[in-house]
UniProtKB/TrEMBL annotation:
InterPro entries from the UniProt entry: DNA_bind_recomb_sf (IPR038109), DNA_bind_recombinase_dom (IPR011109), Resolv_N (IPR006119), Resolvase-like_N_sf (IPR036162), SSR_resolvase (IPR050639), Zn_ribbon_recom_dom (IPR025827)
Entries under SMART domains matching the protein: Resolvase
Any one Pfam family match given in the protein's UniProt record, by short name: Recombinase
Species assigned in the record: Haloechinothrix salitolerans
Region (Disordered): 474-494
The UniProt record lists the keyword Chloroplast: no
PANTHER family the record matches: DNA RECOMBINASE-RELATED (PTHR30461:SF23), DNA-INVERTASE FROM LAMBDOID PROPHAGE (PTHR30461)
UniProt KW keywords: Coiled coil
Name of the protein described by the UniProt record: Recombinase family protein
Coiled coil: 345-404
Amino acid sequence: MRSWCRSRRWEYVEPGRSGTEMTKREAFQRMLARVRSQGDVDVIIIYQLSRMARNRYDDAVVMADLRKRGVTLVSATEAIDDTPVGQLMHGILATFNEYQSRQSGADIAYKMGQKARSGGTLGRAKLGYLNHIDHSDGRVIRTIIVDPERAPFVQLGFALFATGDYTQEELSDELYDRGLHTRATRRHPAKKVSENKISQMLHDRYYLGYVDYDGEEIQGRHEALIDEDLFDTVQEILDSRMTAQERRRVHHHYLKGSLFCGRCRREGIKRRMIIQQTTNSKGAEYTYFFCRGRQKGACQAPYVNVALIEDAVERHYAAIRFSQSFIADMRDQVDAVIGDQEKSARLLRKQITAQLKELDTKEENLIDLAADSTLPRTKVKERLRDIAIERRKLEGRLETANADLTDSAQLVNASLALLEQPDKLYRRCNDQQRRLLNQAIFQALYIEDEEITDGELQEPFGLLHAIQGDQAKATATSPLPTNKKATRNAGGPCSPPGVAVLLRGLHSGTCSSKTSKVGLTLQRTNQNILVEGPEITIRPVGTRRLSAGDAR
């Protein structure tokens, strides 16, 4: 019968989707349209009544329409027909199907709510994550894991947008060029992530580790991909582009991302300065920086012409210059520390190597005694175990002895070179190089009334300036001239012990909140500073992070 119906296109099969909404059931609607238009159908055969309608109202409407056209409904598994008993059974089944549908929906909604309230993720994983099925202890647990392929691009996307240099459309293009694609499905191949998806991603607190359910924010069980500071920075930029024109148009300037409001800082608030272009009646364009707090009426700092700020930043570079005596002193002490380290490391390696050879000899003698049955095997095993423990300790000390501070020394020397004459260097740079230099040296520049009032230095510049300041204070409190060599060895900040602490701190990353081996790394991962030669040239060096070994 099925084959006969198929040959005449009289069989209508609905895809395996929810049938609660009858208007969304395409095959069923095509069947009803045929019944109404052609009038050549006498009987409709269904598997079960629940396959046709999930509530009494839809069932009554469809059945009234079919009876008016003389069509009989037959169920293959239920006793329904045109007899009184069959119609009674039909009504009972329709009521029961409606109850079962609603009960199942309520049960599913409850379980989804319980999962969400315990931090679980509902539905398909978001960009940067993957759905994962864990089979353990006879249970099937559906969870979310980090997508190793796309998660780094999500983190990069937030970092790039936080610079203020990208619109959402430009960010979509940039990430696609770098290799970000959507997950391929059976119906759709992998493609570029749309601007709309990028917008959803940038606004979504899911990437902070939260789940939103029924208007409630819940700490999720999935791993966060970004931190609160980065997310807040992105939201500030999104808020500043609320008008349609500002979303489409971004004003680029090499100081964007480096300037913050000095007035707000005095109140304990860190607000970014944003840029705006205006056009007068004659068509001339003027560019201004202003505090983002003005948009919300929280700050009264004036608009400042960009040319005045450029001059103020250039003047501020002269204020962060290292003195020639400090540079010479630091370089001498760095060389002394490296020389002392090499001598002590050679001596320690020699001692440890000799001790390791002694252990090898003891181990061979014990093996020979065991072979000759001179010593009991249990005692041989105990002594061999002790030797193995001692060898591991010595090898650990050998690794410590091999720890090299040369990379940290090169980083310090590069930093000293950059700030030897920073104002002259800054004037020689083009706009792109100035942007790289600003972001390499400063965490923030605070501006108030057309002047730079303060600046937060990146490391190791901040550490070196602190040492220079301590050295200047020590010199000021010493009324009589002292022997330079004696002063250096007195244990001050610029003495070999002080410089050694600095280098070890940079090597281990304990001198700042940055990652180990602090490099001249900028906010944008594809732009780094490379210091080369006595003249110092600045250029991008690709997409990798700049390590201390690259600063030379």
